[in-house]
Design brief:
single chain; 491 residues; alpha/beta; Rossmann fold; seven-stranded parallel β-sheet; six-stranded parallel β-sheet; 20 helices; 15 strands; 44% helix; disordered C terminus; binds uridine-5'-diphosphate
Length: 491
Amino acid sequence: MAAGSPPPPPPPHFVLVPLVAQGHIIPLVDLARLLAARGARATVVTTPLNVDRLRGVAEQAARAGLPLEFVGLPFPPAGSGLPQDCQNADMVADNSQFLPFFFALRELAGPFDAYVRSLAPRPSCIISDWCSPWTAGVASSLGIPRLFFHGPSCFFALCEIMAVDHGLLELIAAAGDDERHLVPGMPVPVTVTKATPPGLFCYPGTELLRREAMEAMRTADGAVLNTFSDLEAQFLEGYEAALGKPVWALGPLSLCNRDEDSTTSRGKTAVDGKQAIMAWLDEQAPGSVVYVSFGSVARKLPKQLFEIGHGLEDSGRSFLWVVKEREAAAPEVREWLDALEARTAGRGLVVRGWAPQLAVLSHRAVGGFVTHCGWNSVLESIAHGVPVVTWPHFSDQFLNERLVVDVLGVGVPVGVASPVMIFDDESAPVARGDIARAMSALMGGGAEADERRKAKEYGEKARRAMEEGGSSYETLTRLIQSFTRSEDKEH
Ligand code: UDP
């Protein structure tokens, strides 16, 4: 530095506040790691149980000398009626806890306010989840810029804002169940129904949550999305115009995980049996295995689990199927899964609990993914060139399916038209034959081989987007620069 020249500005400090659900924490932790690796300081604010789960990430960051911290605000609040460990959507026991959980989260506003006020200097920017509008108050009262992170695809986000701007949600509410509605203002035709409305928090009892989230969206300084320009350019352009604010497309964020340590420990520090899973995959032929997993939240009752198991068996394909601990809790389910594994020995593996999904999707043996269309799962699959069988369950997943199947051409639908309840749905809307048929269509050599080719092309583009000179890499550079303040602007 030349004598007399001013010192370089301090690195910007980003405070990131994900919704406490794996599908929201995982991408924002990836973003925090990227920010820290690119010279900024990053703090992820969550709850104690999630801080504990993220211990491995914190330790990796400390070893690498990255300025990345995790803060746990006390939760659940006294009087919420929630058990002490109910600190993540995957710990919600049943449907009756779902609304109390979301309403209890609003009470994090007080502790978050106190935490932000305790920071000196003030953070440069707060990036908080679309579903966490309780972060807006302290940001506006202290004049801290705030961006909202929206978890779903930009296609979904644009449908949502178009639906709101054109009064579509009210129209849908007043219409019959079977009516189909065209979402206005979309660059491609998109139709929705009452069962698949274009919005989050569209369930009875969530009206207040939705109003608060929309208000915080309107008052934010911009949006951060986990997508990339070569995947969703036309929707990004439309979203930025509709929002009237900058939209930062920074994904696929999962591609920041480059070593085995980080690909196998996302979401949970200790993943049981990960070596055995990877060793099993090593024995399979390239592109032969179908990975089957429905994200971190949806839970199925035995009837639907058995149908899936039969579908996998009947398909004749190799499969790696993730069944959640709570789904496999009953002895009759455990026994049934054991018997299935015995019948399909050599070509079928059932993971009970949590899988190292990113490591699985990046393994050369995996050629297809039966997914519930959570946006992280879809994007992780695309980023590794793996086409999908789409089986949406609820929320944004139906519109993510439309993007994957109709627009991108990287998916084959299993054929569901309406949502299931989030937990313990009694119905079994998907039959074994549908599962086997969709798997064959995806993995066979017929016309659908197109999906595999297109997925590979998008996988290449995804990698380029995250490399130096790529669209997401350069967008992150601009984001960091725009929140780097000079000394004279310091608080
Ligand atoms: N995931 C994982 N192992 C599992 C299940 C899920 O690592 O056994 C990760 C997955 O890679 C993704 C996230 O959890 O990053 C799930 O997010 P998604 O948006 O796909 O679905 P959600 O859980 O929000 O329904």
